[in-house]
Amino acid sequence: MERAALFDVDGTLADTNHLHVVTWWEAFRQAGHRVPTHAIHRAVGLGSEDLVARLLGEGEDSALAPGEAEDLSTAHKTLYAQYFERLTALPDAGRLLRRLADDAWTVVLATSASDDELSALRRAIDADDAIKATASADDVSEGKPAPEPVERALELAGVPAQRAVFVGDTVWDMRAGTRAGVRCVGLLCGGIPRADLEEAGADAVFADPAHLLAELARSPFA
User: Which of 99, 82, 98 is nearest to 222 (CA)?
Assistant: First the structure.
């Protein structure tokens, strides 16, 4: 019976969340906006447009000039790209993907990263032999917490929601997975508290990929 293991990437398989915080903070600072890092951290995992809107408002409450959201996104991408060759995988991320693939799970990545960012992340994880497909921000019209990224990953896997598990590290991941009808596993390595992940829909929570790998027999992957 076909089954799918769907994974977020930033903060779930790669140790990148705080790099995103720093580079978004610098992009905001260069544009004259003072945004606290703790607020940015809570927004990481959203697509760029939604992240900017959450932190600087939208509509009549927006602190943005026309076209500034796109400029901020471009600045963040440029700053973050400086780290591409130094990105690191979280402990046992590659081993976890390979173990699931060996156990006949179809592994698909569902990420808010753009295609060029995803290429750098995949090099860091170094487990392409275990990954069947990817759904990036360039493949969907609406990012997490909308279900579309997870639904697209399910399409690529060719598996219905009831035979899939989605692993992520943010509340946006858990909400997207829940809305798509899949079981959700939360990881604490992205820096979001256990209670927040559980409230957003996590069926189980583990410390990081290494912890999940060690506890697979007692996880939704069992």
Answer: 99
Average pLDDT estimate for 101-122: 94
Long-range contacts of 23-26 (CB under 8 A, 24+ apart): 23/76, 23/79, 23/80, 23/83, 24/51, 24/76, 26/75, 26/79
- How far from the centroid of its chain's Cα atoms is residue 21's Cα? 14
What distance lies between CA 117 and its chain's CA centroid?
12
> How many Å apart are CA 171 and CA 194, to the nearest integer?
10
Interval 112-154: pLDDT, tens: 888 899 999 999 999 999 999 999 888 888 999 999 999 999 9
Residue 163, judged by CB atoms within 10 A of its CB (0-12, 13-18, 19+), counts as middle
95: exposed, middle or buried (C-beta count within 10 Å: 0-12, 13-18, 19+)? middle
Distance CA 97, CA 48 (A): 27
CA 180 remoteness from chain centre: 15
pTM of the model as a whole = 0.96
Query: In this structure, are residues 121 and 136 in contact, taking their beta carbons and an 8 Å threshold?
Result: no
Tens-place pLDDT, residues 42-92: 999 999 999 999 999 876 667 788 889 999 999 999 999 999 999 999 999
